Each structure stands twice: as C-alpha cells, then as structure tokens.
Amino acid sequence: MPELDTIRAALRAQRIELPSWAFGNSGTRFKVFAQAGVPRTPQEKIADAAQVHAFTGQAPSVALHIPWDRVDDYAGLARHAADLGVAIGAINSNVFQDNDYMLGSVTNPDPGIRRKALDHLLECVDIMDQTGSRDLKLWFSDGTNYPGQDDITARQDRLAEALRAVYDRLGDQQRMLLEYKLFEPAFYTMDVPDWGTAYAHCVDLGPKAAVVVDTGHHAPGTNIEFIVAFLLRKGKLGGFDFNSRFYADDDLMVGAADPFQLFRIMAEVVRADALAPEAGVAFMLDQCHNIEPKIPGQIRSVMNVQEATAKALVIDREALAAAQRAGDVLGANGILMDAYNTDVRPLLAGVREDAGLHPNPLAAYAASGYAERIVAERVGGTAAGWGA
Ligand code: PSV
Ligand code: MN
C-alpha cells in the first residue's frame, strides 16, 4: 500500500465541483415535488453550495447553468461566491430549452437558428470572462428522431463549424469541455452520442478542448473505466459529470447505484496520476435531488466520491503490477478487491479532523440549524427549479 501520508495528502487536495441546479427543485416529467427552503436566486443556490463546502472542505466551486443562473452582474456574483468561501466553476450552456431548437441548435438545418445557438455559446464565454471560470461545458440535445429526417454528415459539419467558432473565442486559460450522450431527447441519432465522436471533435479543435464523461450517459453495461483510461492516456479527459443511474439518465447521487463502478473509474484516475487539480480533470457533480433533501444529498455525494477515491488510493500498485506481469489473474483481481473492500471511512474522518472539520459532515450539517433557517427565511418568491 502507498504511504499513508501520501494518501492523506491526495485526499486533502481533491476538489469536487457542485452544480447550482442540484439545489433547485427537480423531478421527472411526471411530477416535481417542491421542497421548503429551496433557493429562489442564483445567489441563494451559491449560499447552499457554500454549506456543502463548509462541511466537507472539498467542494470549493459551483458550476452555473445559463440561462437558469442568469444575473445582471456576473462579476458581482463571483464576489458573492468568494465572500461565502467558494468560487464559480464551469459555465454550462443551454441550447435545449427554446422552441427554436426543436430540430437542433448548432446542427439545425436553419442557419438563423444555428446563429442564435452560437451566439448563446459565445455569451457563455463572455460570462466566463466575468466570473473567472476556466471551463465551458457544452452539451447538445441535437439529433434526429427518424431515419432520413436530416443529413447525418451535414449535421456533423455544422457542429464542427460551431465548435470551431467557440473554440477560437476562448481565452488562453479557458477550455471547452464537450459532453456526449447516447440518447435523449433525440432517439434515432444524437449528434454527439459517444466519447469517440466527442474525442474526434476535440482532437480536431486543439489542446483547449477535452471530453466530459457524464457517468449517466451510456448504454447499460458500458465499461466506463475503459473510456476514462483511454481519454486519460490521450490527455483528453476534461472532467466528469458524476451521477448514478439504474436505467438511463437518472441523475441520482453518485456512488449510490453502483459504488464499485465509481471505484473502478477512480482507480483509473489514480493510475494516471490525474487526481490533483493541476492534472486538469474537473470532478463535477451533475445531479438532481428529487425526493431527498438537496444539501445533504450533495454532502453525501461528495463523501461517496471521496470514499471511492480513498479506495482507489489504497490499491497496492506495486503488488498489482507484479501480479499483472506474472499473469496472476486471481492475485491481481484479489489485490483490487482488497482495496475496494477496505473500510476507508476512518481514514476520511481523520483527514477531515486534520483539516479542522467535523469527522461526520452530514451530522455536522444537521446540527448546524441551516436547514431550519432557510425554511424559515425563504418565504415568498419563486423557488428555482423545473416547473415547481
Ligand atoms: C444533459 O443530460 C446533462 O447531463 C448536461 O450536462 C446538461 O447541461 C445537464 O444534464 C443539465 O442537468
Ligand atoms: Mn451532464
């Protein structure tokens, strides 16, 4: 096993980014269950995110989604975040909620609609300039439902053209992260359906473009850790949108449905020495808390990522490499499973205590009174969220 001090330092250095939309009301197309105390403004979402950071110590940034988090003064919003001890992270574009985009955004056959979508993406880069954000995260709902509906190749050409225009607008320190999704909302073709498509576009674009792996965006049974290993080897893993799925894009808490998969993913990250922020992999959550309380849901999610990371860090790499060289199939698998079956909770509790935090972030949050305070204070106004 690696030195305990090295493991502790790696755990301390890990950064997990929270999504602003996790704090708003959410649900399925059947029902959005409104919760009391939910934020009404981007400022209140950031305040809730700051609570998650205050109790975990590892979640110092919050991603915005435009237009859900549109404000008049983004520099002011960044200052508000800093005052609360966090920073604004990735800017997520949204070209999927406007009637004009029924047949696509940047791949729409209509040049006027393509222009409108591109203008939104460029606006997101303007916002990044004001918030000091490094990453622009792009996800396109574009695609077709029926064979023959549109020209698959022409849509790729239009996508490439838009990506190039946005890429050329990026500043020296800014990046473009391209997310893929197998299906939904389009069912016949998605224009960026898989990591290979995203990777090819990112390679064409250049070093400031990299792929985002949203763990919920794959076919059942997909070996996600293979994709992660491949992209890391090529220097093209820009980050994760972490969440859990049982069936499709369920957006449940990361590490809840399949903690073993999360461990296998983190094992590849550790193997590539890509855990530290300098490695350029953004560990972002992309989740919705439909039936559970939102702030504890985010705290639990951060803890789940930390636990998977700690298990990946305790893998005896030397013994594993020796077993692999010797062709010792059962031995190698046993070494990996020993790490996975290690109870790392005391290790993480110690890391928190060393940082001056409560060893149990969920208990500390529950005792803080914040949940009761926001229920009492956030009266009136419109709660953020989907149709709540
Ligand atoms: C799309 O399903 C997605 O994963 C993208 O990241 C969006 O921006 C996000 O969900 C919105 O929740
Ligand atoms: Mn996502």
Give the topology, please.
Layout: H1 4-13, E1 16-19, H2 42-56, E2 61-65, H3 74-83, E3 87-92, H4 111-131, E4 135-138, E5 143-144, H5 152-169, E6 175-179, E7 189-190, H6 195-205, E8 209-214, H7 224-233, E9 237-242, H8 259-271, E10 282-285, H9 294-313, H10 317-325, H11 329-340, H12 345-354, H13 361-368, H14 370-377
Parallel strand pairs: 1-2, 1-10, 2-3, 3-4, 4-6, 6-8, 8-9, 9-10
Antiparallel strand pairs: 5-7
Helix pairs in contact: 2-9, 2-13, 4-5, 7-8, 8-9, 10-11
Description:
The chain has 388 residues and is α/β, with parallel strands linked by helices. It has a single domain, classed as Alpha-Beta Barrel (TIM Barrel). It is built from 14 helices and ten strands. The protein has helices at residues 4-13, 42-56, 74-83, 111-131, 152-169, 195-205, 224-233, 259-271, 294-313, 317-325, 329-340, 345-354, 361-368, 370-377; strands spanning 16-19, 61-65, 87-92, 135-138, 143-144, 175-179, 189-190, 209-214, 237-242, 282-285. The strands form two sheets. Strands 1-2-3-4-6-8-9-10 form an eight-stranded parallel beta barrel, surrounded by six helices. The protein has a two-stranded antiparallel ribbon with strand order 5-7. The chain is globular and about 60 Å long. Bound molecules: alpha-D-psicofuranose and manganese (II) ion. Manganese (II) ion binds next to loops.
